[in-house]
Amino acid sequence: MxxxxxxxxxxxxxxxxxxxxxDSFSGDGLYKKENELIKLLDFAEKNKINNLDIGCASSKPGxxxxxxxxxxxxxxxxLNLMKSNFTLSIDxxxxxxxxxxxKNNFKIxxxxxxxxxDELINTAxxxxxxxxxxxxxxDSKSLHEKMNYRNNSxxxxxxxxxxxxxxxxxxxxxxxxxxDPGLGFGKFEQDSIDLLMNINDxxxxxxxxxxxxxxxxxxxxxxxKKEIFEHCINSGVTLVRMHLTN
Length: 246
What we know:
Elements: H1 5-9, E1 14-19, H2 34-46, E2 51-55, H3 68-81, E3 87-91, H4 95-103, E4 108-111, H5 118-127, E5 130-134, H6 152-170, E6 177-180, H7 189-197, E7 209-211, H8 225-234, E8 239-242
Helix pairs in contact: 3-4, 4-5
């Protein structure tokens, strides 16, 4: 598959998803699928997609928590096969896994739980990496607990600003921070749709990352993949986290 020229023209704004799991929500897990993983990496290189987000534990609804040892094994599987010079992000909430990735030249730490773990924050400070703070409602008891919003853009931005202030107070540099509204996590479908279509409300001095790819709510949008991507870029989004193949 070749990418549309719109994607190639904005390839620096793509954060390509690489799932090293056997239980990915969209069935694209590449753990122990060496040929498919190499093919995906070659595809990214060919299309000048330099930014890749590597996940070794599923965060789908009803996911099973992965033991640290298993997540480390999956990451090492990737490290042993990865040859090209990508800018790599590690998608994890586990400090030990984060440290292994950052020791191996990963540059970004992406925490779907919003950096509520001080050990993870300290790891980011130690390695002076960039961080992606994914929104999670402060009152939620789990990642996928559906929360009610009166003004979703305003409340999500307020929550994210609180987390940004917290990690800066701990010692993370502001220039190393990205924010992500956490579409599909703890939100009703319409809230995720509204957040995506009004994503410019979140764009200010902190770069915005957005991930809608293959999530259930995105099927209700009357827009093509190209049109959603263009909407994000035109709204000022810095990175669109997306699957690279059909």
